[in-house]
Amino acid sequence: MSQATHLGFGFVTTTIAELSADPHPVLARLRAEAPLSWVPVLDGWLVTDHALAQRVMRDAATYTVDDPRFSTATVVGPSMLSLDGAEHARHREPYVPPFRPGPVRDHFAGFVTAAVARLLDGLAPAAHAELRADFAGPLAVEVMADALGLTGVDPATVRSWYAALVESVSEVTSGRSPTAAGAAAMAELRARIPLGVEGLTTEEMVANAAVLMFGGIDTTESMVANLVLHLLTHPGVLAEVRADRALVADAIEESLRLEPAASVVDRYATRDVTVGDAHVRAGDLVRVSIAGANRDPAVFTDPDTFDLRRPNARANLSFALGPHFCLGARLARAEAEIAVDGLLDRFPALRLDRPVTPEGLVFRKPPELPVSW
């Protein structure tokens, strides 16, 4: 589609580097000018306001994930992540029960608490650590390995499979072929994953296990790292949370709002549709900026401020909406709460060693989180 086609419809010039480093000023400008803007560097439309983001994510008939350009499906095969309608439900429903309130409370809470304690035991003697690589990342991998039933598989092995799959998806996104390492990781996962999910073939079970890894590793690592960073860079908030641990849940929601771990979700228009002055054509990429929607001043007062007592912080869209609402949202919140409680209990003098800021086009997190105690 030519750039000229979109002039007058929120046509915006930016760069991948700008959107990866600090997208919020650009997103604010786009949101003020046009809630749906054509962004050439993305070769697609970008949704930046809260109301339209909800509309797009809820309307799977008009804005679908089921498109050949969806790179994850090229690597792992069709799954709940890349299907809509009845097929999406068939793939997703068997995986819902483990993430309901009962299992999260009765199994995962205890598992996460034990994993947090073990990881912190290993870190404590050094009096310093890089918390993203040494704590948030390993915790996310251990929890997801348990959720997938990968008993007896070393977390480092699971991490290596995941890294290979991410690299393969990145290659496909860049217009190249899936990698041999990615195919090998899928074969290893197929050999180790428990099978027998009713209504799904073996290949479908493996594909869904792979996308659960995508949903539960990078995003949860980012969520925990961003939360700790927000607390350590807001001393007043940190003091309140230390004094009243019930506020951890509020800190999680505000951290998710301010810097969502997954900052965008992609959809493809199934038909021509007009949104305001924008004319979206069938097949166009429509990218929903969760980061933009979460700072919409029409919904969130003073949206760039971390407000521990923001009354509507849970209106954030960080776990998406509609049929693709994050399956593990409840577990992710529990994991973040237990992780922060553990850190604050174990290290009362926890502090950030040097300034860091989140970065990333899709998964936003600090490149490192160096701390001392």
The CATH class assignment is Mainly Alpha
What fraction strand? 5-15%
> Judging from the principal axes of the Cα atoms, what is the shape?
globular
CATH topology: Cytochrome p450
Chain-averaged pLDDT? 93
Ordered list of secondary-structure elements with their pairings:
Elements: H1 16-21, H2 24-33, E1 36-39, E2 44-47, H3 50-58, E3 63-64, H4 71-76, H5 85-92, H6 101-123, E4 128-130, H7 131-147, H8 155-173, H9 180-192, H10 202-216, H11 218-232, H12 235-243, H13 248-258, E5 264-269, E6 273-275, E7 278-280, E8 285-289, H14 290-293, H15 329-346, E9 351-352, E10 370-372
Parallel strand pairs: 2-8
Antiparallel strand pairs: 1-2, 3-5, 4-10, 5-8, 6-7, 9-10
Helix pairs in contact: 6-7, 6-15, 7-8, 7-11, 8-9, 10-11, 11-13, 11-15
